Every structure is written in structure tokens, then in C-alpha cells.
Amino acid sequence: MSKMSHTRRDFLKLAGLVAMPFVLPESARSQDAQRSHGQTRPNIVFIFTDDHAVQAIGAYGSIINQTPHIDRLSREGAIFDRCFCCNSICAPSRAAVLTGKHSHANGQRTNAETFDGSQPTFPKLLRQAGYETALIGKWHLRSDPTGFDHWEVLPGQGSYYNPDFLTAAGRKHYEGYATDITTDLALDWLKTGRDASKPFLLMCQHKAPHRTWAPGPDHLTLYDDVTIPEPPTLFDDYAGRSPLLKENEMTITGHLMYDYDLKVTGLKEPDLLGRAYENPEYRRMTDEQRARWDAAYGPQNEAFLNNRPEGKELVRWKYQRYIKDYLRCVASVDDNVGRLLDYLDAAGLSDNTIVVYSSDQGFYLGEHGWYDKRWIYEESFRMPFVVRWPGVARPGTRVSALAQNIDFAPTFLDAAGLEPPGEMQGASLRPLMDGTVPSDWRRGVYYHYYERGEHNVPRHEGVRTERYKLVHFYDVGQWELYDLVEDPQEMRSVYDEPAYRRTATRLKTELEALRRKYAVEPA
Ligand code: SGN
Ligand code: CA
């Protein structure tokens, strides 16, 4: 079926089923206006979440949840199986996306720095080239956004319930659930906020599914009747790898707090670090929201407190509570992706709009016994990257070439017919979207995590090729090497095995070459 008839069918279906009088005249106007200005450059909708791992996306093979709307994008476009972040933490990943540069080059090595918004970013360059640009939702870069005609962002990490937003004009407060509100604000801008004679860039950036994984009112009881499968490495003993793995503070067993993370309201038993905080969302809720929350968690908490499991059974209980809340947040994200896609269809915009779904890094969903991210290991190193680009991304294409978040900016500039500035270090992903891999495409991705502090993950750098991964914990002079074909779950470093000596040497050379290529300061 041609794209045109598909769109029309969806449109008729929508128009028949749902009352959407708002879209018709206005969308027709905006399309006409764009055409009359000779406007053929595609619009860009960039949907970016916080900590959404590929293990929780249907199109990536999830066995723990379903994401029909993200999956739709994948069917109608291309899905990247090997897309990686350059530094698995929020602000640095976002800065890399905006600037097309690694952390040392854009200055955002950790969450603690303030983003230098004076450097070239893709929104800024698109805007200079005539795009209308908007940013809604999570930002987390401390400095005010630059390069946007319109922005409305969560302060810092933001809140799930009844969130505040910052705008150029000051602070606004909304009642409701952040994922819905962020989408509402994005839709408002699409409908009435933009100059419809220009192509647009919309960055719709959700807080979800970030810690403390607070589900919205509509998803509080989703998964109540099921047991989510456990990852095979939930009870990892960290043998055969760096001793540093045991020292991190992000275990399901010992570093989730009962009230704060696990929603056992009122249970003040400390975690392994002696912390016993209250859940920050609970006190933000309206009485009605809190009543729904209590109705969902209350009886289960009572059952838990009356008959508390121990040992491995307790870990299993914590895993179920954690993963269900995470997946409930994801379910709301997916619903809201659907709302945006429906609007683009109904407004006649889908045929000339690139839609990307991605997230700032992956996350441990119990693998290695962990939550959080930061490590170069696959689950938090990988990023989802799903792109529907009519006429460019061949529907159903699976891309296995090595992609990285520094490629996003050059890709979006390419879409607008712009050359990336010389200082951008990534490359446009466009040539990969029909399944071909250019012969000069990168053979290794460079990674560098710099933060010291929360969760106690050591600084490290590394390189990943199609088959291998070399990791250097340079503060303590430890190395790891993984053979991802033999050991996809990274349970055994082969760095010291004689059979891998030549591979280790080759990868060290590759790491040095990447350091030179990206002008990384000597370690
Ligand atoms: C917060 C979280 C951490 C998380 C960091 C970074 N703690 O500090 O668990 O690792 O953010 O996340 S919380 O109790 O405040 O939720 S990031 O995605 O923003 O980099
Ligand atoms: Ca994040």
C-alpha cells in the first residue's frame, strides 16, 4: 500500500472515530502555506525520553512489555540496533546530541557542569536556516536553552506529578502528569504556537521513565496480574570482571529505598547507604491523585509488610515493584507517542515530517542486579534510535552499523540540506537508512564516562567494535575485554586470556586512534 493511501486511511479512521475538529482547517492551512513558500524541507519531531532502555521496547525484542506506537515508527521507518551514547548520563548525552561533539569537546562531561549554550547546536543552525524551533520538557542543562523560538522546560530533573515548567517569561505550574502535559504542550505548539509558513523542529523531551519511576494515574495498576520475567543476570556475582563492579551503589538488593523508590509508603528502613527518603512525588499529589495512588499500592504494601520475603525472594519482590513502575512510566510514554503520531496524521503532516524516538541512554532493568546506568556495558550504553523519514528510511530497515548520539545533529542538519560545521564530530546517519553501510563508516565507537559521585561508578573509557569491547578503568589501571559474540551479557572479561592477546592489542590501537581522531586530552 502506498504511503499516501496509508495516511489517508489513517486519517479517515481518525476523523470517523474521534472528534478532532481542531486539526482540519488549521493543518490544511499550514501545509498550503508551506507549499506556497516553496517549502519542501522536512519537519522534524524529536521525541526524547530519559533512561528508556531498548530492553523495554517491543521493536527491540522486549519480552517484558509492549510499545505499539514506538513499534509503529519502526515498521514505517528504520530502527538502529547499534546506537550508543558517548557518556551514559543525562546532561552529557543531551549536550552530545545538541552539539554533535563528544563530552570533552562540548564541555559537558558530567551532570554537574552548566552547558555552554553559545556553541553551535543543530536547533540553532536549523533556526538560522529558517526553521521554527521548539523545545518542550526535560532539559537538564542548567543554562537557558538557546536556539529555540519557543521553550518550556522542566526545572532540573522535573517532577512527574503536577510539574512546574520554566519558560523565558518565568515559572508555570500545571496540574496533571508530566508525560501527558509535555505532550499537550507540544501539541499546543504544533497547532497554534508556530509560524506555519516555516518548516519546524519540535523536541518533545519526557522526564519518564527516570527515577523515581512514578506511574501516572492511568497506569497505576497495569501489570498487577502478571509476573515480569527476570533478567538472567539478576543475581550476578561479578566474578571474572573488575572488582570495581562490586563497589557500585545501584543494586536492586541494597540501594533502592522502600518509600522513595519502591512506594512502600511510610517504611523508613534504611538502604545499604543508610538512606530512607520519602517519595518526592507523593507529597506533590492532589488528594484525588493520592487516593488513586494509595488504592493501587496500599493493599499490596500491606500484604508485603504482613509477610515479608527474605533473601532472594526479597530481591525478586523489589525487582517486580521496580520494573513494573518503570514499565508503567514507559506505557504512558508510548501512549503519548501515539497521540503525537495521530496528530501528525490527522494534520496531514506525516508525509513531510521526520519522527525520531530516542532516549539519552539505556538503563539496567535488573541486569547484573542493577538499576541506573553510567557503565559502558550494553544495557546502559545502548540508546534506542527509531526513525520514520518518508522517502529516506526504507520501512522495516534494521540498521546494524555503529551509530552514536554525536551523529544526531549532523543527521538533522543533513535533513535540512545543511552541512555540519567542521567542529561537529559525528556523521549523518542518512546514508544508513536504506540498510546500506558506506565503506568508510566507523569501525569503533569511543566512550568516556567522567562522573564521580552518586552510585559510585568509576571513571572509564572504552571502545566498542562490532564484536568486541575494551574498557579502561584508568584511575586504577584495570582493563576489561569482552567478546560480545561469545558473551553477549558481558559476564567474563577475556582481557587476560592468551587467546585474546592480539585482539586486546588491536583494540588498544583502535582506542588510541579514536582518542587522536576526537582530540581527547591524554588520560
Ligand atoms: C538523580 C538520580 C540518580 C541518577 C541521576 C542521574 N537520583 O540524581 O539515580 O543516576 O539523577 O540521572 S534521584 O534520587 O534524584 O532520582 S540522569 O539521567 O539525570 O543523568
Ligand atoms: Ca538519563
Q: Could you explain the architecture of this structure?
A:
- This protein is 31% helix and 14% strand.
- It is built from twelve helices and 16 strands.
- The chain is of the alpha/beta class and 523 residues long.
- The termini are far apart.
- The protein is globular and about 65 Å long.
- Helix 6 (122-128) runs parallel beside helix 11 and helix 7 packs parallel to helix 9 (311-346).
- It binds 2-deoxy-6-O-sulfo-2-(sulfoamino)-alpha-D-glucopyranose and calcium ion.
- 2-deoxy-6-O-sulfo-2-(sulfoamino)-alpha-D-glucopyranose (SGN) is lined by residues 50-51, 89-90, 111, 140, 157, 210-212, 372, 454-455.
Distance from first to last alpha carbon: 55 Å
**How do the SSEs run, as a string of H and E?**
HHEHEEHHHEEEEHEHHEHEEEHEEEEH
Calculate Rg over CA atoms. 23 Å
- Indicate the proportion of strand residues: 5-15%
Q: Got a strand count?
A: 16
- Alpha-beta content class: alpha/beta
Hetero groups bound?
2-deoxy-6-O-sulfo-2-(sulfoamino)-alpha-D-glucopyranose, calcium ion
What is the topology, as strand order, of the major beta sheet?
Answer: 7-6-5-4-8-1-9-10-2-11
Largest sheet: 10 strands, mixed
What is the CATH architecture assignment of the largest domain? 3-Layer(aba) Sandwich
Number of helices: 12
Overall geometry: globular
Helix content: 25-40%
Domains, number: 3
Give the CATH topology of the largest domain.
Answer: Alkaline Phosphatase, subunit A
Mean pLDDT: 93
**Poorly predicted ranges (pLDDT <50, ≥5 residues)?**
1-38
CATH class of the largest domain: Alpha Beta
CATH superfamily of the largest domain: Alkaline Phosphatase, subunit A
